[in-house]
What does this fold into?
Amino acid sequence: MAGATLSITESDSNGIRVIALDGEIDAHTVPSLKAALDKSIAAGKIKVMIDATKLGYISSAGIGVFNAALGIIKSKGGKLSIGGAGKTVMDTLEVMYFTKKVDVFTSASDALANF
Amino acid sequence: MTREHRMVLNASLSELSRARNEITLFVGAVLNPIDLSRTIISVDEALSNVILHGYEGRDGEIKLSIQEDDEAFTFIIDDGAPPFDPLSAAPVELDDYIESDSGGGLGIDFFRRMTQTRYERNDLGGNRLILRKEKTHEEKSSS
It folds into this structure.
């Protein structure tokens, strides 16, 4: 059984690291998300936008990784936001209080414009 | 009206998506999209907890029974891992959690808030976790 899949595409837009997610974040796929965030932060990318336009599912594993990365990013004076969140992803972020901590937008372009 | 679906999972994180797919097939026509999402996450979190903290990488089996009656969906998760009552964990204070940089601990809290949860030891000496998701009035009408 192959399990869930998560494709991660990284790019830069006007000094903002955009991490686009396609698939599902669960306890199986979350190590690749953590690796991508760790790599970006290590490269000095402290303005990070998560493009969740093609993200179909997120469990607490993903929120935990976002939360841990956010702590590092903020300590370096950076910012993390999430754009393109669909209805159920947005609900999960709200229920887990993450929308109290980061700006979350239903549109990726709105998230980029917020930096 | 009652119906049931049973599945057996290996204690592997790669099995989580299969469980989510089968839950969707069983309950997806009844629950609204938000309730469906919250229910799937609840069971996913419970299964992840068993795999990561119960079996801790060891081979093992998890049995999942999904039952529907007129009032609710009930998810019964049986494992053979060492006894652990997830309900004995202190509730997460979300305001405190979100102010911290913690990377974990939300999963148990999530299914405790989203479902009625009961823990007991099973006949095999392992654990049985029961998650019950009450239907809304509209969901009762559509089932």
Q: What stands out?
A: The two ends of chain B are 9 Å apart (CA to CA). Chain B touches chain A through 35 residues (CB under 8 Å). Chain B has a mean pLDDT of 92.
